[in-house]
């Protein structure tokens, strides 16, 4: 249905190589996290997948179709909520649909109810809290017609408590339709809690240094955060990140 | 807005001072009439100048509408054609150093004393603030939102109608507010050049017969016209940009 494949992708800006031979495959309905230090090129990878600019070499395919440099093929949730201030919440979440097809208002209202924004349908973004904005931005990408989703550190601007709430909430929504997700974060716990698989991106130029499968059963419960296995994975990832930044 | 009474009191104080000093120093009313005399004249000879008002209002509004439309059109054209923009924009900026009024006699030679040269003058003074403000608005389009639209696969047209234009609206409105005042000024000045009706004409007639009170009535009318036009635009702005006026924690 929507299998995202990235082959030997490289990108440099001026003299700095940001990505070098990055390859990865995300299966249909898989939730994969990309974990890497700040400035390692995570957003750049997303911009390449989204066709914002072309890679220097390599290719990106979605369900076998070459989408390298093509825009509008994936649904995208940017690092900042990027809601349009003059649109009501309802009109905001319909935007991605609007660009491609006739928007489905009933579906949007239903989704807003589900994420607890029903009372804010007609409000403007500035009336929402940070967490609510992120939820609205997430609904927008869920409603957009493309099947694969790229989420760029959606919760990094939130406080610890709200972030954990949002992670639970995100999983509960994701469980329903199981879209293919590539999720960028630099929060180790977040990656473990959410993903089927974690790809660790090394620094400058970024390559995938390690891949870790997360075996916790779904739907996931909060308690796994405190389990021995969770801490074990966390330690493992921590050491990989640390050793990578030392050499 | 709650502090509005402070300047209001100050203004009232100035008017009272004016009234008192004209009486105290026996200033002759052809030099400086007291506010009470001006008011009296304004009420008394309403029927005399009423037709002048409507003429100026019509002229101002049509000039404003045409000027603003042309201003918007130029801004959009320059925005979508970067090459033309590079060529025209500096010339446009330079042209603003010419006081438009010096072109007036030329316009009279070419187009006579009818409505056309007057509309041209108002258009010339009106379009520029709108063009500049609109271009500024386009240029300042939030980069994050541009990124988002591109990633979402927006076409050029969608980019314009769904992002750039609504994003520029607050700037466009500041341009409109400046143009509104300019259009009233343009109308009055163009009437000085030769017209049969209008506040400008009423003013010239009053001035040449040393009816200073009437000159003040005309000034008052011009100020009122400016305020009304300005107020109307603010009302429309409040409605169109209502998202800016809702309570919110940020920006
Ligand atoms: N358009 C660009 N032109 C030049 N350099 C760029 C551009 N975009 C990104 N870079 C550089 O590429 C590197 C990677 O940036 P990127 O935004 O992809 O990092 P990131 O992993 O998303 O970081 P963060 O976690 O802070 O969001 C940075 O050093 C950045 O300065
Ligand atoms: Mg980033």
TrEMBL record, chain A:
Protein name: ABC-type nitrate/sulfonate/bicarbonate transport system ATPase subunit
Organism: Gracilibacillus halotolerans
PANTHER family found in the cross-reference section: ABC TRANSPORTER ATP-BINDING PROTEIN, TAURINE IMPORT ATP-BINDING PROTEIN-RELATED
Top-level taxonomy: Bacteria, Bacillati, Bacillota, Bacilli, Bacillales
A GO molecular-function annotation: ATP hydrolysis activity
Pfam hit, one: ABC_tran
Keywords: ATP-binding, Nucleotide-binding, Transport
SMART domains: AAA
Tree of life domain: Bacteria
Automatic annotation (TrEMBL), chain B:
Superkingdom of the organism of origin: Bacteria
GO terms for biological process, alphabetical: transmembrane transport
Pfam families: BPD_transp_1
UniProtKB keywords: Cell membrane, Membrane, Transmembrane, Transmembrane helix, Transport
Subcellular location: Cell membrane
Topological relation to the membrane, as annotated: Multi-pass membrane protein
Stretch forming the signal peptide: none
Classification lineage: Bacteria, Bacillati, Bacillota, Bacilli, Bacillales
Transcription keyword on record: no
Source species of the chain: Gracilibacillus halotolerans
Sequence ranges assigned to domain ABC transmembrane type-1 in this UniProt record: 53-234
Similarity comment text for this entry: Belongs to the binding-protein-dependent transport system permease family.
UniProt keyword annotation of Transport present: yes
GO cellular component: plasma membrane
Full protein name: ABC-type nitrate/sulfonate/bicarbonate transport system permease component
């Amino acid at each position: 249905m929507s299998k995202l494949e990235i082959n030997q992708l490289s990108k440099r800006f001026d003299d700095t190589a940001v990505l070098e031979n990055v390859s990865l495959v995300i299966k249909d309905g898989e939730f994969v996290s990309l974990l890497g230090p700040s400035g390692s090129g995570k957003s750049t990878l997303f911009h390449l997948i989204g066709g914002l600019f072309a890679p220097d070499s390599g290719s990106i395919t979605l369900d076998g179709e070459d989408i390298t440099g093509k825009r509008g093929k994936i649904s995208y949730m940017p690092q900042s909520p990027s809601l349009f201030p003059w649109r009501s919440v309802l009109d905001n979440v319909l935007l991605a649909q609007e660009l491609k097809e006739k928007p489905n208002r009933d579906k949007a209202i239903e989704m807003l109810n589900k994420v607890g924004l029903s009372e804010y349908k007609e409000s403007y973004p500035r009336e929402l809290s940070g967490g609510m904005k992120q939820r609205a931005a997430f609904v927008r990408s869920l409603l957009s017609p493309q099947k694969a989703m790229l989420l760029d550190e959606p919760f990094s601007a939130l406080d610890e408590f709200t972030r954990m709430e949002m992670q639970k909430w995100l999983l509960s929504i994701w469980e329903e339709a199981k879209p293919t997700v590539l999720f960028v974060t630099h929060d180790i716990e977040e990656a473990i809690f959410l993903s089927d698989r974690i790809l660790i991106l090394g620094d400058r130029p970024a390559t995938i240094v390690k891949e870790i499968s997360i075996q916790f059963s779904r739907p996931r419960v909060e308690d796994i955060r405190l389990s021995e296995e969770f801490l074990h994975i966390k330690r493992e990832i921590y050491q990989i990140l640390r050793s990578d930044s030392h050499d | 807005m709650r502090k509005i009474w402070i300047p209001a009191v100050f203004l009232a104080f100035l008017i009272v001072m004016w009234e008192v000093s004209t009486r105290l120093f026996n200033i002759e009313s052809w030099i400086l009439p007291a506010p009470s005399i001006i008011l009296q004249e304004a009420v008394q000879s309403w029927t005399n100048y009423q037709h002048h008002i409507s003429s100026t209002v019509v002229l101002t509004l049509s000039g404003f509408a045409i000027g603003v439309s042309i201003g918007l059109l130029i801004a959009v054209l320059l925005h979508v054609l970067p090459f033309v923009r590079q060529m025209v924009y500096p010339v446009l900026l330079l042209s603003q150093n010419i006081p438009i009024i010096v072109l007036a006699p030329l316009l009279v030679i070419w187009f006579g004393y009818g409505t056309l040269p007057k509309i041209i003058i108002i258009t010339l003074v009106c379009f520029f603030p709108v063009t500049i403000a609109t271009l500024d608005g386009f240029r300042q389009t939030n980069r994050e939102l541009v990124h988002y639209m591109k990633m979402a696969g927006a076409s050029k047209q969608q980019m314009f109608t769904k992002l750039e234009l609504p994003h520029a609206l607050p700037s466009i409105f500041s341009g409109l507010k400046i143009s509104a005042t300019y259009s009233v000024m343009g109308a009055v000045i163009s009437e000085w050049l030769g017209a049969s009706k209008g506040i400008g004409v009423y003013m010239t007639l009053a001035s040449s017969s040393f009816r200073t009170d009437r000159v003040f009535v005309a000034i008052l009318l011009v100020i009122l016209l400016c305020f009304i036009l300005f107020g109307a635009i603010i009302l429309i702005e409040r409605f169109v940009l209502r998202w800016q006026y809702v309570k919110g924690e940020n920006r």
